[in-house]
Amino acid sequence: MPDPASTPPTHGGTAPAALAEALGRVLEPARLHVNEPLAPYTTFRIGGPADVLYDATTADDLATAISTAKSLNIPWFVLGLGANIVVGDRGVRGLVIRNQAKGHRLDADGTLWTESGAVVQDLVLETVRAGFSGLEHYIGIPSTIGGALWQNLHFLSPAPERERTMFISEVFASCDILREEGDRRVVDADYIQFGYDDTVFHHRRDVVLSATFRLTPGDPAALHRILQENLSWRGSRHPWLQVHPSAGSIFKKIEGVGAGRLIDQCGLKGYRVGDAQISHIHANILVNLGHATAADVRALIAHAQATVREKFGHELEPEVGFIGEF
C-alpha cells in the first residue's frame, strides 16, 4: 500500500494525469506538466506541486486556458513571477497557468502595448534605452505587467526629494481583460478602480491579457540615474532575492505606524521558525534561508502577529496571498 503522503493529489477524485488528458484535448499537450513543483516558479522558492502546470505563451493562450478550465469545472490559478504569494507545501489543485505571454511593442510616440506576462524590469530597460519615461520608477521590483496592474505597482518618486508615491496607474491607458463572466473586454482606469495596493482584480476574477501605456519622452541620462538610485535604495533596505528568497512585504501597511516598525520594536528581527526568518534588514520581510516550508512561514507569521498584538494591540494583516493547500 503506498504512503498517503506520496500519493499524487487529486481534484474531485480525478488524478492529475486525467486532468491533463482532459485539458490536452484543447490545450497543447506538450505544454501541460503533471505534478510540477511550484517552488522554482516563486520568488520565495517555496511550494508543493501543481496538479497540472500549463505555460501560456500568448494572451490568447492565457484566455483559452482559463476558459477551458472553466468549461471543465477545473480550479485554476494564474501565476506570474510568483512574488507576493506563499504556495502551500501540499501544492495547488487543478490547473496552474504560468503566464509567459511576453509580446510587446513600443511605438515612436511612446505608446507601449504589452501582453500581461511581460516582466516589468525588461520593459523598464527597453523603454529607458529608447528614451521614454514612465516605467523607470519600478526597476528592481519583481513583477509581470499583470501583477503590476493587479496591485497598482508603486514606488517613491525620484531622489533626493522622494516626496510622493508614483503609481503605474499614472501611465496606464487601457487593458484587454477576460472577465469572470467569460467575455473579453477592453477597459480603462474607471473600470479598474486603482487604489493603494488595490484594484478591481482583488474583488473579481478578471484577468489582464494585455495592456497599453502612454509614456513620455525623457532624457536617457536622467532616466539611467533614476534606475541606479532606485536600485541602490532598494538594495540597502531589502534582502537580495538571489541570496535570501522572499515574497516581499508580508503584512499590509498600517498608516502612521508601519507594520515593519512594530515588528522591529518587538525585537523580532532575525527570529526564525525552521528556515523561515524575519529579515535582519527589513522586519516586514520574511526570508527563506534555504529549506523553509510554507508551514514554517505560516508559523512565523502567526508568531509575529501574536507578539505585536500583545505588545501594541495592533492586528497585522497579511499582504501576501496564500495559494493552494497547506
Give an overview in words.
The chain is an alpha+beta fold. It contains eight helices and 19 strands. The protein has helices at residues 16-23, 59-71, 120-129, 145-151, 189-192, 220-237, 259-265, 294-312; strands at residues 32-37, 49-56, 76-79, 85-87, 92-99, 104-106, 111-115, 132-133, 154-156, 165-167, 172-178, 184-187, 207-214, 216-217, 246-249, 272-273, 276-278, 285-288, 321-323. Strand 6 (104-106) and strand 7 form a beta hairpin. The model is unreliable at 1-9 (pLDDT under 50).
Low-confidence stretches: 1-9
Main beta-sheet annotation: 5 strands, antiparallel
Class inferred from helices and paired strands: alpha+beta
Molecular shape: globular
| Residue-averaged pLDDT | 95
Strand content: 25-35%
Helix content: 25-40%
Topology, number of strands? 19
Strand order of the largest sheet: 6-7-13-11-12
- Compute the separation of the termini in Å: 24 Å
Reading the helices and strands in chain order gives HEEHEEEEEHEHEEEEHEEHEHEEEHE
Count of runs of 4 or more consecutive helical residues: 8
